[in-house]
Amino acid sequence: MKPLVTSILLLCLTGLGHAAKPPASAVAEGTGGSALPAQIRVLVAMGPSSYFFRDGRVHGVEYAWLLEFEKFVNQGRGKSRTSLQFIPLEPTELIPALFDGKGDMAAGLLPVSEGARHLVAFTEPFIQDRWCVMRNRSGKALPDMDQLAEAGVKLTTAGYARRLLLDLNEARRREGKAEVAHDSPGGGVTQEKLLADANKDPSRYLLSSQFLGALWGGVFSKTTTDFCLEKPVPVAWAVHKEKTAVLAALNRFIAAKKNSFVRQGVDLTRRYLHPDGVGKASRVLDPLDKLAFFAPVMQFAAKANGLDWLLLAAIGQRESGLTEVVRKRGPTGVMQVDPVTARSMGVKNPHDTTQNVTAAARYLSYLREQFASPEITAEDQLYFMLAAYNAGEGRLKSLRAKAAAQGLDPNRWTGNVEKVARETAGKRMVDYVLAVSRYYHAYQSAGQKSGLGGERASATGARVRGQTASRATE
User: Transglycosylase SLT domain location, by residue (predicted)?
Assistant: First the structure.
């Protein structure tokens, strides 16, 4: 990490001493977080920094930070654990969707605003961001707003920056000062894309987040900062006002980690940043990505078996990292299909990619029929399909019988068969179901925004187009 970039990040993380002491409600719950639900629905902003795809895998600072939170909140809880359900949305949809109860919390480098406080609760801030005038190093230096206004330079703004500049110009009008000219690109243009433009265009000036400028400093090395607005902007997570246990746990995490998780997430994310500043749903099928390579054969096999090809993609990502791992014995290929299972599905050579994916699709279609019952919801049907794919249908049948014997619901996964699986079979099966469903849900949400894959079948057989087929882990 370059020394200057490191210094800027440290500046963003200073001034947070007031967050070091958690609220009383957070302390009262203790590290175990026993009041937390089995799942926390996280509305997360799709974007080049917070949550994006590379080689079919999810990356991003918010994703990395919240995985650390998940680890933290499950410390000392034994087999009664909480998992995070990521629901990717456009950044502008986060607060309205959270207010409407479509999630328990929202994450997306959210600036804390008094207007939003009327709708949602905020955690203690974990970043004190600054908004700065940035430009290409070849452009003319303009050290303050007065000189910027006098020069007649248009300041490019997007999102929160536009709101800040409107407030700034209102204050300048009251003081009798010239307003700063600005232009705002069309909807969907991100701060990262504007940084990419400034990196190439010496005439471009923009108002940008100092945190994002530092995060992308190694990619957009031709950009520099002239000056920053005086008032820092706190960045936090938003929580539905009724989810007090979630709010308390998040504040406890922020206080305990003292922002080390922020630096860790930045380091993990930097290596995967797209050089053009793009990383939203449209890039889930980048031509150079592994997912794009396997998409045609997965789409063909899925259509032949009435499945959603994105489910095959999610399983392939978990099984092999979308890599053709060929083994002489045992599970093989991108879908890690056992040769015995492949033969039972009428496939002779599971080492061949097309036949490997075909065997997996046929087996999933078979499993779907095994768990087709009016008493099993579509979500639980998908859970059972994944669990059986991982451990075998016989193993799952045994776990469901044990759940019934313990007075639990054998037709429900979360908190029922899942609980028995964790206690008797270990965490491997449970973690597998969680991992695949996370990938699947991420792919579905990305497809909803980008029209990915056109017409598809859901995991349970219904035809869908351009919409989420099944929220399997909600």
Answer: 298-404
Regarding whether 297 and 256 lie in a shared domain, the answer is: no
Closest listed residue to residue 74, CA positions, set 113, 108, 37, 117: 37
Give me the CATH number covering residue 43.
3.40.190.10
Residue 473 lies in a domain: no
Question: Within this chain, do residues 393 and 244 fall inside the same structural domain, yes or no?
Answer: no
- Does 117 lie in the same domain as 138? no
Q: Kindly state the tokens that stand for 377.
A: 């919801």
The whole-model pTM stands at: 0.75
Banded model confidence at residue 472, pLDDT cuts 50, 70, 90: very low
Active site residues: 319
Claim to verify: residue 125 and residue 135 sit in the same structural domain: no
* pLDDT, tens only, 210-229: 999 999 999 999 999 999 99
CA atoms of 73 and 56, how far apart (whole Å)? 27
Burial 376-403, CB ≥16 within 10 A → b, else e: bbbbbbbbbbbbbbbbebebbeebbebb
Structural domain span for residue 146: 131-228
Residue reference for tokens 């054998």 = 410
Q: Please determine, for residue 26, whether its predicted confidence score (pLDDT) is greater than 80.
A: no
Token couple for 160: 């929160």
Q: List phi, psi (to 5°) of 138.
A: -80, -10
3-state secondary structure of 283: helix
Q: What is the rounded distance in angstroms from the CA atom of residue 43 to the CA atom of residue 324?
A: 33
Q: Which two tokens stand for residue 389?
A: 């794919």
Query: Which residue bears the tokens 């099944």?
Result: 470
Indicate the pairing of strand 127-129 with strand 233-239: antiparallel
At 346 the pLDDT is 97
- 317 shares its domain with 416: yes
Give yes or no for a contact between 156 and 225, defined as CB atoms under 8 angstroms apart. Answer: no
Q: How many domains does one find in the chain?
A: 3
CB 59 within 8 A of CB 272: yes
